[in-house]
Structures are given as structure tokens and as C-alpha cells.
Fold:
Amino acid sequence: MLCVGEASGDLHASELIRALRQQDPEARFVFLGGDLMAEAAQVSPVIHYREMAYMGVVDVVSHLPQVTRNLKIATSLLGKVRPDALILIDYPSFNLRLASEARRLGIPVYYYISPKVWAWKEFRTAKIAECCRMVFGIFPFEPEFYQRHGYARCIYVGNPSVEEIDRRLESAPLAEEFRRKHSLSDKPLIAIVPGSRVGEIKRNLPIMLEAARVLESKYQAVVAGAPGVDRAQYPDSVPVVFDATTELMHASTAALVTSGTASLEAALARVPQVVCYRHTGSRMTYAVMSRILKIPFVSLPNLVADKQVVPELLLHKCTPIDVLRHLVNILPGHKGRDAQLEGYDLIRRRLGETRAAATAATLLLADIRG
Structure:
């Protein structure tokens, strides 16, 4: 049984399902997730992640009846199916409650793609240690972090984005072909990747588009549509492409990316980027978060590199004029572009070439059987 709460989790979990099926053809699956998992497992989700992708206190509270219902369905399913393993993918507020129920029932729990406890809410490491037989880390610094907190069963298995991006890039069209395929103009592209949740899109996309609009005489902004998000959530004035985020980034000169998995994917695709995260835009929130966060950076490329490779424009610092200033600095002929590309080489070396899903599947099956 697997449980994910949003689009990137659906992608990573689908690769893990394929790896498990390859190593154990008799494996059967039940899950809360999305269409990619359904394709890999050849069964439909019990709950689609579209009904689970709530982010932040306000969003969760406003959907509390739905969240409570989802948790009730998941715990009931756990008791009914009694799976040989419960595999959790991020989504900690929900998944750690599910983990507690699995532990009570004596069902082994594994975490693939750990919550970002190294960034904030370190107290969750105690719950993970209590409930999980093993954590399959996807960042090379995670085992050392867990070790410092008394948990020795976190193993770095590689980062799934490396393999996923490389596979997509093999068949990605060149910029000219991509523009022709999507009926775009001949101008070079700027990829706009505003997030996978409606709330993120509403907060980040207007800032990104306003910044990119200043360059519209030379560049064309194209938005990466999120899986499961209706076209009506995006303005009619800008082209939107769905199911082609990697291809869009590969075909683009630069990108504006909402902080999250997409920022690491942009780095692996070698497209210079500006990381944006508007959220409330509040200086007070920024001050509070600066004290809560236990890490020097927020974006994944900078965390992996352990230095600033990409600019991070967060909250009140995420304004159209500042986004534009940093965007110009990574366009061809500007010094910020070469510096980012050098940083991307460092990120590649640190992540390595280990196949994350296959390695995690091998470890999980060996633990179940042994």
C-alpha cells in the first residue's frame, strides 16, 4: 500500500511501483495517488491525490471534512487489506497519522522521499523513528541528519529526478520543434513553472508573468500547466502546455520556477532559473520563517550544492521588478548564466547516478523477506 498527496509524489511512486513489479512480478498494489501510479500498478487509486493536495494551515482547515474523510478511508483500508508493507511518499501531516495506525496493526512502514524534517519540524523525526523500519533518502545529506537524531536506518538511494529527467530529455524535442508542435511563435522561450497546486499558481503566476512581460519583444513566456489543474486556472493571454514541463524547460532559454521539486528538475535539465515563492508576501512571515527554518537555503539546487547556485526570491522579496532583475542576469551574455551552469555540474556530481526506485525496491523487498 502506498500513499501520496500531490503530483510529484505520484510520479516518484509510479517509478517505485514499476521497480517493485520488475523485481517481484507477483506484487499487488493498493494506493492513494494519481494516474501515473494507476498506469504502473494497473489498478485505480482508492483516493486520487486531487482530493488530497491541500497545502498550508488555511487550505487544510478549510477542507478539514475532506481531509478527515480521506484519513478515515485510508486507515480503514489499511486494516482491511493488511498489506505486507505501507510505503509513504512525503505528505507528512497525513502520512504520519497513517503510519501510527500501521504500527498499531503490526504493518511494516517505509518512507520513500522523506518529509523535509531537516528544514523544519525536526520533532517529526521521533515519529518517523518510532513508526518506520527504514527511510529511503533521496538527498545525500539525509542519512547524516537522521543519524544525528538517533535514527540509523536512513539510506541514500539516489535521487529519482536524475533518472526521470534524463529519460525524458532523451526524447525531448529541440526548441524549434517544440515551438512548432505547440503552435508558438519563433521567439526564444521563457518557461514559467508556477507550481502544482491551485493556491501556488494563484500566488506565484501573476508575479512571474508580470516580470516576463517586460521581455516580450524578444522572448515568449509559456506556462507549464500542472497535472489535474484545469486550464481555466490560467489566464487566456498566455500559452499553457500540459504534460510537457521537462520538454518546455529543455526548449527554453531560462525559467521562472516555484520553489519545490521543479527547481531541481530545472537544474538537472540545465536551464538557468530564478526560484520564486510568493506565498503571503509578508515581511513578518519572512521574519518568522527565517527563524523557524533550520537550513541556509530553501531551494533544492542550493541545498544539494550547499551554496547559492540559483537566486531565491521568497515572500516579500518575490516582486516583479526583482524577479525581472535576476531573470535578465541569467539570459545569454550575462555572467549569472555561466555561474548557474557551473553550479548545476556540482549538483549532478553530488546526486550521483544511483537508480533510486530500483535501489529502494531492492532494499524494501529484502527487508520484507528477511
About this structure: The chain has a mean pLDDT of 92. The chain is about 50% helix and 15% strand. The chain has two domains: 2-158+354-369, 165-351.
